């Protein structure tokens, strides 16, 4: 096949049974389970194990996985010391990529570099997945305090993944509803077929590099505003609009100039992203819980979505997962530059599931290209060039 398709659109890159989506009907499933049901009834811990193992765990299996995650939350002080020398103005995703790569040096697990059969050892793969997944949240919350000049807050073993994240982030036990909302957000962001960052993880994994570096490669890819960074852009956009009254004039200007409306449109979905629908409901639940007291940006967002539906719905452009996720994180007291880091914490479960799947029948990725440059030419000495 020599046809060039920009962005590899529509080109199958792998076979997978981890997740599937129907863009025309707006359905997303993990291992066959609807995302709506998982967000409502499951937990991030259970969903992560489902993605990794391919089936819903028994009560005993989930309890053991949860115990392993809680036990592996701490990171060595060396990692914290390294963070202290990073510029406090650096983006959290830059910190996260660097720190995950550093974990490979302090928690070795590079048997895949030297032993191909080790990559098929499910105990090895599981243990490495636990170590990385458990520490992702610790790295993000640790940086939040260190960049402000404070010592980080140690993790607790008696809290769920989501509740512990909020505790380490703010230093106090979270509102149970906020912890449950974050738990749902993590589930919704955990996996989404072969997106850009997952493809990066597959390519890195195919070389049999360390799983830490597999995740680091994926983090670097997720950081871009066209991928994971879009939720931060949505908040900046809503702040720019200012109020619901400004929505339609603002939208008219943007569309006339053919500028991007952040949080709108998705390459795969031709209807509203099912994750956006769930996140919107979570925002409404939070508003009810607080007696209507949420950021005025939410009303602006609702008005903008309505206006975009009127103007762009016929073209298949609808709200995606980024449109409401940042609003929820803002309500949790999380600064906008940390939104993508939370995305990475959640998506790490999917990346590791794909890493595991890649190792089962691995072949290094080596795509071809369509060469458009010059053909063979004679070298011209510099003295003879004009």
Blueprint (SSEs and pairs):
Elements: E1 19-22, E2 27-30, E3 33-34, H1 35-41, H2 44-53, H3 59-71, H4 77-84, H5 92-106, H6 122-146, H7 161-170, H8 176-189, H9 196-206, H10 211-222, H11 230-241, H12 247-256, H13 274-289, H14 297-312, H15 322-331, H16 339-360
Antiparallel strand pairs: 1-2, 2-3
Helix pairs in contact: 1-8, 2-16, 3-6, 4-5, 5-6, 5-10, 6-7, 6-16, 7-8, 8-13, 8-16, 9-10, 9-16, 10-16, 11-15, 13-15
Kindly state the percentage of residues in helix: 40-55%
What is the global morphology?
Answer: globular
Q: Between the first and last Cα atoms, what is the distance in angstroms?
A: 41 Å
Secondary-structure-derived class:
mainly alpha
Low-confidence stretches: none
Compute the number of strand runs.
3
For the sheet with most strands, the description reads:
3 strands, antiparallel
């Amino acid at each position: 096949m020599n046809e060039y398709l920009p962005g590899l659109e529509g080109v199958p890159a792998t076979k997978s049974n981890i997740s599937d989506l129907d863009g025309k009907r707006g359905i997303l499933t993990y291992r066959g389970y609807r995302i709506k049901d998982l967000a409502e009834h499951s937990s991030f811990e259970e969903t992560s194990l489902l993605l990794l193992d391919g089936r819903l765990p028994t009560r005993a299996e989930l309890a053991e996985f949860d115990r392993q995650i809680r036990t592996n939350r701490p990171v060595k002080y060396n990692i914290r010391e390294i963070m202290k020398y990073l510029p406090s103005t650096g983006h959290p995703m830059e910190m996260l990529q660097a720190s995950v790569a550093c974990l490979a040096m302090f928690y070795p697990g590079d048997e895949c570099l030297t032993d191909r059969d080790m990559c098929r050892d499910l105990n090895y793969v599981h243990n490495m997945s636990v170590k990385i997944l458990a520490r992702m949240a610790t790295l993000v919350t640790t940086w939040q305090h260190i960049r402000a000049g404070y010592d980080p807050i140690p993790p607790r073993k008696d809290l769920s993944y989501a509740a512990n994240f909020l505790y380490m982030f703010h230093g106090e036990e979270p509102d149970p509803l906020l912890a449950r909302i974050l738990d749902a957000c993590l589930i919704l962001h955990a996996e989404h077929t072969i997106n850009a960052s997952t493809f990066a993880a597959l390519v890195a994994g195919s070389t049999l590099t360390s799983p830490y570096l597999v995740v680091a490669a994926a983090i670097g890819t997720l950081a871009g505003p066209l991928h994971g960074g879009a939720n931060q852009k949505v908040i900046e956009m809503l702040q720019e609009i200012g109020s619901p009254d400004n929505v339609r004039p603002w939208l008219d200007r943007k569309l006339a100039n053919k500028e991007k409306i952040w949080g709108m449109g998705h390459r795969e979905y031709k209807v509203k992203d099912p994750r956006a629908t769930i996140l919107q409901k979570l925002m409404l639940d939070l508003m009810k819980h607080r007696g209507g007291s949420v950021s005025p940006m939410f009303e602006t967002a609702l008005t903008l979505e309505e206006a975009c539906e009127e103007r762009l719905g016929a073209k298949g452009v609808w709200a995606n997962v980024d449109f409401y996720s940042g609003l929820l994180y803002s309500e949790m007291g999380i600064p906008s530059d940390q939104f993508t880091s939370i995305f990475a914490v959640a998506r790490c479960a999917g990346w590791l599931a794909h890493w595991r799947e890649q190792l089962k029948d691995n072949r290094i990725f080596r795509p071809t290209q369509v060469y458009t440059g010059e053909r063979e030419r004679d070298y011209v000495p510099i003295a003879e060039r004009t």
